[in-house]
Design goal:
Blueprint lengths: L9 E5 L4 H12 L3 E6 L3 H11 L4 E5 L5 H14 L5 E4 L14 H29 L2 E6 L12 H20 L5 E7 L7 H4 L6 H4 L5 H13 L4 E3 L2 H10 L4 H12 L7
Parallel strand pairs: 1-2, 1-4, 2-3, 4-5, 5-6, 6-7
Length: 266
Amino acid sequence: MGSAQQKPGLAVVTGASSGIGLELAKIAASKGYDLIIAADEEEINDAAAELRRMGANVDAIVTDLSTIEGVDRLAEGIEADGRSVDLLLANAGRGLGKGFLDQDFAEARRVIDTNVVGTVYLIQQIGNQMRARGSGKILITGSIAGFIPGSYQAVYNGSKAFLNSFSFALRNELQDTGVTVTCLMPGPTETRFFERADMLDTDVGQAEKDDPADVANVGFDAMMDGEGDVVAGWKNKFQAAMANVTPASMLAAKHAKMAAPGTAKN
């Protein structure tokens, strides 16, 4: 106990098995944070091994973050660590393509439960601990999809609209507490998202996408600076700006041309 060396802070990253979440975890590791990472698939253990090779102390938790029980399992793992969470990167998310009436409702509900219910439940638990001690940073992965009525991704875009709005409201509520909330709003990113959402046969599924490492860097920097929101990529900034002045019916029709099944350009 005589060492004056301060232990690194603790960062919690959800949805960290691949994509933006894994890249966020890598940045946290490179900056000396210890990590607790979580996802609903065994690949989270591969991610943990990669992060340990970077020299990070990592605990990996396989848990279904679309359920209250799954989030509780993560919370128990955090509590067992015995330290306060300095950074909460609430990145876990799920997509689903095709027309809403053609979707399996259990899959559609899982999108809502993962993106919305599990996310806000975790944030309330960790956020209360942060507020009680007067410090902490929260990064929520929203999306520019939240600005656009998402024909053939209706539930996903709706869930991201919720997260975008929720993050701004929570940030305002916490403005004098020492806790900051940042919303990262990427556009289409080169991850397994479109494969998992069964959207590889769509125009947007086949189009060139942003690098998840670049997106993660933009989001992490914004969080550390305490910014309220950040849109990654100039094309996405332009699209977000246009969405604010374009009628919703036109946005929905445009989205349909990108996301409808079978629209992929060969």
